[in-house]
Queue: 4 jobs
Job 1
Amino acid sequence: MTIIKRISLVALLLAPVFTIKAQTIVAAESKQNALVLQVTPKKQLNALYFGNKLANESEYKAIAKQYHYVSSTGEANQAYSTAGNINILEPAIAVTHADGNRSLALKYVDHKTTKISDDITLVSINLRDSVYNFEVTLNYQTYFNENVTEQWTVIKHHEKKDVVLNKYASANLYLQSGGDYWLNHYHGEWAQEMKPEEEKLSHGIKTLDSKLGTRADLFQPPVFMVSLNKPATEDEGDVLYGNLEWSGNFKIDLEVDPNNNLRLIAGINNYNADYVLKPNTDFVTPKFVYILSNKGKGEASRNLQSWARKYKIADGNGPRLTLLNNWESTYFDFNEPKLAELIKTTKTLGVDMFLLDDGWFGNKYPRDKDNAGL
């Protein structure tokens, strides 16, 4: 039997449960992929495997033997790692309880699977602290045919006074490749947006973040790809493609741990952003969306675009209007005859709409350059 080493993370439709050496294993499958979750005898929720479907359930029994998860820091493959316990790697959540204590040890309580449609399944896994009346629900909404997952958390407590959330990630993923990890991301500035960059991840933490508040994506957008083993091409390679569905400050940490596995934590940037959570109140994080492909960057991007058109964009699969923007043709230097000729020419190509860009405003102080008339 051959186990294809791919990615270990929590997602997808929960399926049959069986026991291996007193540890509950939950198998999950989507159209192309399979996932295995583990609840340990101590009720810790761990991620074991995410990759190609295996032939049958019996093969999942061997998965735990294929990987190395434990080090001096404890079990590094926690599904949602906490601060203030044996874990000394980067946490997904950190809190200050009403009495000032900062410890947190989340234990598995139960899970529920809700079939929303033929394509969409919501898996909710409930975790609770062993001492404090503090709860976290991990949500994984999967889209079967697209192999896309949206992940977010709901945080709640029933303590007598307010609790301060110091960190509150949407997702804590765990990836394994048996080799290296290559990160594709983007950076830029005004007029130099979305400049691609690829780098090999080394041990330690690589952070993609924004603290800008407004225009949060100006320097660094929250979209990225991680290739496993070697840099992926358009049509070849194992790729995880992710993005945070959030327009404000964000933080994505990618940490290669001592076992050469990759821990990925994504969510709202907690920099200078402690949140006071009142008792019996839900704190819902934004969704982190991701897709896994074993056929390169092209399949990952096409599947995610198909998912967005189907589920996120109004009339996304309907006819799209074609737009002409005059900016690169004229910049600030235009007048009515010049624009009329531009519209007349492009009409024969089937253009539906015309957008007049920068420079149309300003009378006393005309907008004829980028530092005047704004």
Job 2
Amino acid sequence: MGPLNGLKIIEVKGLGPGPYAGMLLADLGADVIVIERSGAPGIAPPAERDVFSRGKRRLSLDLKSSNGIQVLKLLAQQADALIEGFRPGVMERLGVGPDALHDLNPKLVYGRMTGWGQTGPLSQRAGHDINYIALTGALHAIGERDTPLPPLNLVGDFAGGSLFLVTGVLAALWEARVSGQGQVVDAAISDGSAHLMSLFYTLSELGMWTTIRQRNMLDGGAPFYRVYATQDERFVAVGALEPAFFAQLLEGTGLPSDFAHHQHNPSKWPELKAAFETVFKTRTRDEWVAVFEQTDACVTPVLDLHEALNHAHNAARDTYVTVDGVDQPAPAPRFSRTACAAPTSPASLGDLRHTLSAWGVSESALSAFESEREP
């Protein structure tokens, strides 16, 4: 089930962004087999409650042994794509870099995700999400007036990394249908994070964006696009960008209608923000939700990850599912003909022969491997 049904993807397991990319592909119907690197430091096998491992096959291989490398090569001959997230050169030193695997399977798409990319002066340096978004302008643009704040690891690892890797792999798979040749996808988290900032380069060119935090329309500077505390020390999110929506916001809060004349006058924003801060403190979060839920004022409750499970809209769309007692987001997006299957729990480590056979490795190749296998 799912639009990627029939695709075979190898995921050489690394840290979060790689497994998340593999989960996205598995959610969409691809047959993803995760190579757990036995004995690898810092790479723990997925627990039963690991959402990123849902719907995948699993094998434990020692990629520093000839047996482990041979198994990976057997799988690569049957695969459409392989994804990995190690520093440049690691897979080559193991003997399973792109050149080696393309000799075995010319159509293989080889997806590589790193923080800094395969080339450049930082390509061999360590880093994490916060470092990658720091060099792209993204971190500087997010946070309080005096201090940038990391937006979890959503912008770098998952948006700039996982999503661009999946996009690149699917694009390369499409091209391989025509050319008959695979290629390397170099997905750098820093590149993807920079790409996500495209809108703000446009706004800057138009004179609509300053590098001073909380002085802009979308960074908490505008009174009509920010979060306000409520009487019960919870929060509501306000996104009344358009004049018609801002008018409904004013009506619902009971603030003067002539505030609308100053919506896009930054010199008046401090005054308007102070007024909204005061009025939102007069009711609880849920009382404000009741005021605005039938309007287009773009006011919503700020829910924590547990509250989000039970919101009526999320429940109606089955945005979240429970798999063997573990709450988690459902696959997205949705498809009219090739619906994605319901997620399943992470698989147990698979039997080697059965897994290879299920992936199309021939009986003769299996027998040859077993006869040559080192004890």
Job 3
Amino acid sequence: MRKEKVFTIFVVTLFVLGITHVYGEDVRGVSKDTIKVGLIADMTGPVTAVTVPMSNGIKNYLRYLNEQGGIHGRKIRLIHEDDRYSVPLTLAAFKKLVFRDGILTCIMVTGTANISALMPHYEKQKLPIISVSSAEIIVKPVKRYVFTVQDTYQNRVKTVIDYILKDLKAKNPVLACANLDNESGRTISRAIQETVKPLGIKFHEEYISPAAIDATSQVMNSRRAKANYVILGGSDGTAICFLRDAYKIGYKPQFIGTLFSNSEAIIEIAGRAADGYICDNPFALWGDAAKGVQEMMRITEGYLPGKRQTVDYTVGWVKSMILAEGIKRGGEGLNSESLVEGIETIRGFDTEGLTGPLTYGSDDHKGGNYTRFLKAYLKNKTFIPITEWRRSSD
């Protein structure tokens, strides 16, 4: 009788474990009907002009996805933590999401330094992340659990320099840059230096605090350096600050934005100071005729009626698209490893005009290889494309 009882307990235990395995309850962040996804993004700090619309794009795409039934019968539960663009708060948010909430994966809408500080932690926890930063340190060499949706800052800088020399036909240009005073900005400056040094091009660099409201000294220094091309990299705020103060003193080099100094908010806030402003951007603008943009606008109208979105919203939308595609390819037995492998199988992913085609592999986690150049159109407070999509990778 005792043996029969022990056997019965053994069989029941196996049955319960079997059910648990089938529905993925033993996988962090995955249950039979839910997938937990973390989002770390500044909502109350110095770069909200970029991070808030980007976060809204992420949230609304996943909301729409859930309304269509989710993926393999599972709905996405998005858990958002505000890190105020602060490395200590990013670490605290990460620990909370992983150890208390038990997320499967995380979308990181925060700075390069913040994401870099997490590197040993997400590797140890085997936590796949979709990074907003695409500095080379993030994706080169390839980190198994890190993905982006655009080319590296370094490659984009090379494309900007190439545009100045070939498209604008600059002769003996003197370059300056005004970037965020953080790791993202220093990454851009280093990339410019590495690109122009072999070409013998003079180069001057300036840095602007993420919370700055004045860039007079940086403008004056750039003018003293006789820079006739100024690259603005970092955020909308970086560009707005510099453009306004340059306009006040009549300093009129050709301004070219990169990284996140490329949203429509620059034109709206800087006004006439943005006249002639050019930027590169791997993502399509709100109002673009592309099928993917029109579909995004149609869906968003149901959540944010009558509200025009900046290009940063598109960035968030595309991040969620890639995450969702990876989850889909990860299959019903989803876990962190199958999610990574799912994203790595994406080849020539067609966003229908939201970006150029996106391709991943075990040796390439940055996805995007294309950008295009835009010019400020003051009348409609937007940018208009002045080039087709062009490959920015080496």
Job 4
Amino acid sequence: MAVDQNHETSARVGIMADSHGQVRALSAGISLLQRQGCDVLYHLGDICDSAYPDTTRDCLALIAEHHVLAVKGNNEHAIAVNLQDYEDDPEAILLGSFLERLPLVRSDAGALFAHSLPFENELGLSAMVRVMEPLAANLFFKMYPGEVLFRGHSHSPEIIYPRDGRAATRSLPVDETISLADLRPCVVTCGALMDGLCLVWDPAGDWIRSLACQV
């Protein structure tokens, strides 16, 4: 797990996921979150798309230019594997190396960031694609009491939280500010950037807000 401990817990955090090789969507999401005062940006995987490998370079250039902290999604893994065939292409080697080094899970300011599930030690690469079922959510609640997991992968914005011994779910409407104080530990799926959705998290105020951006 990559630990990003250099950020102030008061810094507003911008979170996005699943841009799937859409350069304009990625650029729009970054710009919107920066305008919201987000000093720290996370991308929760599937930055790129193995069906559109020609956009990989431009997507990763945006990630690097804006110092976005990223985790590996299943599309990054697939592209990195495919780029191994281009052993005589220096650019392909660099892109593949960058994708291969992306962590499966990051941790910062009392939160975890993953493409799908955070159980990298138990599941390895399959953690990127496993479904967030109630059993997985309850395991997260037990292993990480009081923390938040921000994830992508499913493209459906929602919050999963413990209630009466079970995993309850509520939707994450656009532009509604939701306090996490009474929901922790919880799992937040931020929605897909390719659908024009991203998320602001304010650790100091302990709230989140889903945002819609023009793609």
